[in-house]
Design brief:
Elements (H helix, E strand, L loop, with lengths): L1 E4 L9 E7 L6 E2 L4 E6 L4 E5 L4 E6 L6 E3 L3 E6 L14 E3 L5 E4 L1 H5 L6 E3 L10 H10 L17 H16 L16 H17 L43 H16 L2 E9 L1 H12 L6 H15 L5 E4 L4 E4 L5 E7 L2 E7 L7 H16 L5 H4 L4 E5 L18 E5 L15 E9 L5 H16 L2 H4 L2
Length: 462
């Protein structure tokens, strides 16, 4: 019986929610056939079966949350579950339960071991995301020693393997100098130091030590016990409907709560004249390049972050410190039927507005089709939420934890008739982590963003 555990896909993911079982008890599954859809705090993934067999038991229901390493399904693949007797010396098992046979004859000839893998017993336990990343990086999973739960390959394993590949590629050749053999130590040589040590101990008499009377420290005042937290229950009435957050809504529930509980938020806002920006957008449209306002905001903020690196940071809660990120990866909030999700435009500073626009369109399409990958949603360093197309004069956005700031763009309005078409004014609001960012710094940053948006040439040529 093969017991399949929730795999570790890396990136700090510790649990996942069962969204949908693709198989049911009694089904026959093939190797690499999708079994279950899992939602993590990063992305949705379809988890395939690493073996072929019959589904014997499903241990978790849809909507339940599972920890990495917990058994979620049992598959009858013909293997036995009882404890196995110790293997003979010719068989060695590594952490991923791969059987390796060693020939005794090969040990005697030339002193070099020839190891043969048993293909039937060898299973490379890695998620589809890890397999894809390994393929992109040119890493052979057969060469990796897994460190994840139950012998699973993690993203850290891939990073280590890639680092070793680069080191080997640039490593100098050995000089070929042989070290002289060290003569063996005889029993007589060992006894001589022991005898000398014994003689030295005889010559040294212990000095008596007078015990000082023990003095009890003064009693310390007890710290007040924390107030007891009592969870309140809300009564229901006839006709009320109960909603329990699941899937994406549960992730939003947890992440927003964590952000507000840990980070003291404050907000500053500015009115921005976007007349020139709208004209630039319309000029591009006339020339066959259609873009929305969002890519312009992404580019302008990316340029501003180079002058205010404190805003391009993550909070490391475990070590109570902040990490100022080198890369500027812009998160873009996307409204989907399931709820809000944040996709990431990597290295936005190095991309044109047209490139950013194309990426946002692709990411939005994938988000609405529930096809975002781990790469699409990881490593954002600053987030922009544009709700202007929906409405709302102003809002206080909640920081996308563990980032330290977020910018919201709101409904644009037309001030006058000097511009023939389109709107020419909008309000932007900036929420910040007050532990790191002072009000004055926030004001300077949002004024810098405003200056770029009101003069598009100033950031489009960067």
């Amino acid at each position: 019986m093969f017991k399949f555990t929730l795999p570790d896909i890396g990136e700090g993911v510790t649990e996942g929610e069962i969204i949908k079982w693709i198989v049911k008890e009694g089904d026959v599954v093939k190797k690499e056939q999708d079994m279950v859809e899992i939602m993590t705090d990063k992305v949705n993934i379809n988890v395939p079966s690493p073996v072929e067999g019959k589904v014997n038991r499903i241990l978790f229901k849809e909507g339940q949350v599972v920890k990495v390493g917990e058994v979620i399904i049992e598959i009858d693949d013909g293997s036995k579950t009882e404890e196995k007797k110790p293997e003979p010396a010719s068989v060695v098992k590594n952490e991923s339960q791969e059987s390796i046979s060693v020939s005794e004859a090969d040990k005697e000839e030339g002193g070099e071991k020839k190891v043969m893998n048993d293909d039937q017993n060898r299973r490379i336990l890695a998620s589809p995301t890890i397999r894809r990343i390994a393929k992109d990086r040119g890493i052979d999973l057969d060469t990796i020693t897994p460190t994840g739960p139950n012998g699973r390959v993690t993203l850290e394993d891939l990073d280590n393997a890639e680092r070793e590949m680069k080191q080997k590629a640039g490593a100098p050749k050995t000089s070929g100098i042989k070290m002289a053999p060290v003569p063996p130590v005889t029993a007589r040589q060992v006894e001589q130091p022991k005898a000398a040590e014994a003689q030295s101990q005889k010559m040294q008499e212990p000095t008596p030590i007078r015990e000082e009377p023990k003095v009890s420290p003064p009693p310390q005042p007890k710290e007040p016990e924390p107030a007891l937290h009592v969870e309140e229950t809300t009564n229901t009435s006839e006709g009320d409907q109960i909603f329990e957050p699941h899937g994406l809504r549960r992730l939003i529930f947890e992440k927003m709560s964590k952000s507000k509980q840990i980070m003291p938020h404050f907000m500053v806002a500015e009115t921005v004249d976007i007349s020139k920006l709208t004209k630039t957008m319309n000029d591009m449209k006339e020339k066959g390049t259609k873009v929305t306002l969002t890519p312009f905001f992404v580019k302008a903020v990316a340029v501003a972050l180079t002058e205010f690196p404190k805003f391009n940071a993550h909070y490391d809660d475990a070590n109570k410190r902040y990490i100022f990120r080198k890369d500027i990866n812009m998160g873009v909030a996307i409204d989907t039927p399931s709820g809000l999700t944040v996709a990431v435009v990597k290295n936005a500073l190095d991309k044109s507005v047209v490139q950013i626009s194309s990426e946002i369109s692709d990411l939005a399409k994938k988000a609405r089709e529930n096809k975002l990958t781990l790469t699409d949603v990881q490593d954002s360093t600053f987030t922009i939420s544009n709700v202007g197309s929906i409405g709302g004069l102003i809002s206080t956005p909640i920081i996308n934890y563990p980032e330290v700031a977020i910018l919201a763009v709101h409904r644009s309005t037309k001030k006058g008739t000097n511009f023939e078409s389109g709107d020419d004014s909008t309000i932007i609001s900036l929420s910040c982590d007050h532990r790191l960012i002072d009000g004055a710094d926030a004001a300077r940053f949002i004024v810098k963003v405003k200056s770029y948006l009101e003069d598009p040439i100033s950031f489009l040529i960067r």
